[in-house]
Specification:
The structure is a single chain. The chain contains 12 helices and 6 strands. The chain is an alpha/beta fold. It has one domain: 3-Layer(aba) Sandwich (Rossmann fold). It has a 6-stranded parallel sheet with strand order 2-1-3-4-5-6, sandwiched between helices. β1, α1 and β2 form a beta-alpha-beta unit. The protein starts with 11 loop residues before the first strand and ends in a 20-residue tail after the last helix. The relative contact order is 0.15.
Length: 298
């Protein structure tokens, strides 16, 4: 997509958070981006979107709830997603009406467990994730929200230390725990992940932490192998919450990835302009382009 003067259209950055989180998890990233158009909407069931109980059961339903935010992001989108937000971002970039707008994609341990059903070794990881999802969901259906939160946080702690939450933070998680079965259902409902990943033709960065549950580390490794030209960043000392706990390492990688995508967009524009000029009949009026540094980096 290009602006009226032939330069790449100004892009917005959209970041999607994890389950039981909110858009506030991206505060440091927003600061690092400076004046770049940035939005971190609350996914349904969390933050300011916690009201009601009519929550989506699919990733497509989640995207539909985000439509008002996506409409505000005029022009191309640099899309970032973490955990459940990463699953939504993947679906948005591969099979939504907004897919053509995505200029770059960053996936931080996206919850895409169905990618692991194709081999016996990976299928065991898939079954373990599905089993954990059933246990947590059943606890919530039985009214045992505290037990569900204990199981949820224990699983995502992986091989790292259990995260310590403030009393108010734990209370917020318990109050929002009813949304977790819907998140699990949406992630486990998605088919065709490998085919969608192979079809991706845009700059993609995938990131994982060495202390995270092995299921998400394996998902990231497989995505990096499948997606054409994907960049992989692995932080051995980080856990699943790496965009929060290791923001000083994660955010510079995201910014570099966005910068590279912007540079590629400029190169593609120049190549298209050269091709158009070469195709013009002899003696025809030449096309004039005004090139300037995009406002993203000013």
């Amino acid at each position: 997509m290009t602006g009226l003067d032939g330069t790449p259209a100004a892009a917005s950055v959209v970041a999607l958070h994890c389950s039981l989180g909110s858009g506030r998890q991206w505060t440091k990233l927003a600061a690092a981006l400076g004046g770049t158009p940035f939005m971190a909407p609350d996914i349904s069931g969390y933050g300011v979107a916690a009201c009601g109980r009519d929550w989506p059961r699919t990733l497509d339903g989640e995207i539909a709830r985000l439509e008002p935010w996506l409409a505000k992001a005029t022009g191309p989108i640099h899309l970032i997603g973490h955990s459940y937000g990463g699953a939504i971002a993947f679906r948005l970039a591969t099979a939504s009406a907004h897919a053509s707008r995505v200029r770059s994609l960053t996936l931080i341990e996206p919850v895409l467990p169905t990618l692991l059903r194709d081999t016996p070794a990976d299928a065991r990881l898939y079954e373990r994730f599905a089993r954990i999802a059933r246990v947590i969901s059943q606890d919530i259906f039985d009214g045992a929200a505290m037990e569900a939160i204990e199981a949820f946080t224990a699983f995502w702690a992986g091989s790292g230390p259990r995260e310590q939450f403030s009393p108010s933070g734990r209370l917020r998680m318990i109050e929002q725990a009813d949304k977790l079965p819907y998140d699990f259902n949406a992630a486990l409902d998605l088919d065709g992940v490998a085919a969608a990943a192979r079809a991706l033709k845009l700059p993609t960065l995938v990131m994982s932490g060495g202390l995270s549950p092995y299921v998400t580390q394996r998902i990231v490794a497989k995505l990096a192998a499948i997606i054409d030209g994907a960049e992989l960043r692995h932080l051995p000392a980080a856990g699943h919450m790496l965009p929060v706990t290791h923001a000083e390492r994660v955010n510079p990688e995201i910014l570099r990835h966005i910068w590279r995508a912007e540079e590629l967009a400029k190169l593609e524009l120049a190549a298209n302009a050269d091709a158009a000029e070469a195709a013009q009949p002899a003696g025809s009026a030449r096309r004039h382009l005004v090139f300037r540094r995009p406002s993203f980096w000013e």
